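Recall the central idea of this unit: under ordinary conditions, the amino acid sequence of a chain determines the structure it adopts. In this exercise we apply that idea directly, starting from the sequence alone.
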Amino acid sequence: MGDLIRVQDKPDIFAERFQMGHYGFVAYVNNDPVAYLWGQEGPVHVERRFGFEVPIKDNQVFYYDSYTIPEWRKSGVGRALIQESIDFFRNGLGKSELIAIIETGNLVSQKTYEKMGFVRETMHIHLDIIGKKVNKQLAKMITQ
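Accordingly, the structure predicted from this sequence is:
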């Protein structure tokens, strides 16, 4: 877990994810951790930022919380990390479908996932957070 913390200092969050059986992937450049990506198997992912649940089927993996340190963005590191995780989930765990939900404003991530073979679907969520109505449009990225 130390290398994840070197990318972003969230030890309590990372420890909880490992305890729940989620998968953390780390990308290295010259032995330095520069990016991470999380994935999980079902039955459900609780998306804490937006307050909704994402059902995960037996043949699926849900991707969430990827981060690349600023100086390594747009370098191909994130794409290589996604490819390694795809290979692991497909070949190691036999998963046939991978899902990521990305904010519509994050076009760089959406385009990266599209280059990796993911197909974009629009997703709308409607929330009531302490009496405040929130409508959010997200991009659901799915591999086939």
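The chain has a mean pLDDT of 86.
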